[in-house]
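Collaborator request, handled under Task 6.
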Amino acid sequence: MLIDFDDAEPSPGDLAAIEVEWPQIEAELAELDAEIRALSAADGGGPTELDWRRTRRSAARLTRTATRATRPAADLRPAA
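Structure tokens returned to the collaborator:
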């Protein structure tokens, strides 16, 4: 079956899944950005302390969001 992607729009279920995954996607983008900054700094004498801090913070954020994403949904609900 050939799918015409030009006319395909995400379903409400697709949009809901993206919404749930967005914190993880955002954390991965921040991690990538921090790594690119640190690597690019090599041309200017090496990464600064701020570059290293960004890298550590983005890695920690990525770990936190990954941990939240792997918990069962029941664990994410507030306690009654």
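The cover message to the collaborator said: "Residues 24-68 form one domain. The CA atoms of residues 1 and 8 lie 14 Å apart. Please let us know whether this matches your experimental observations."
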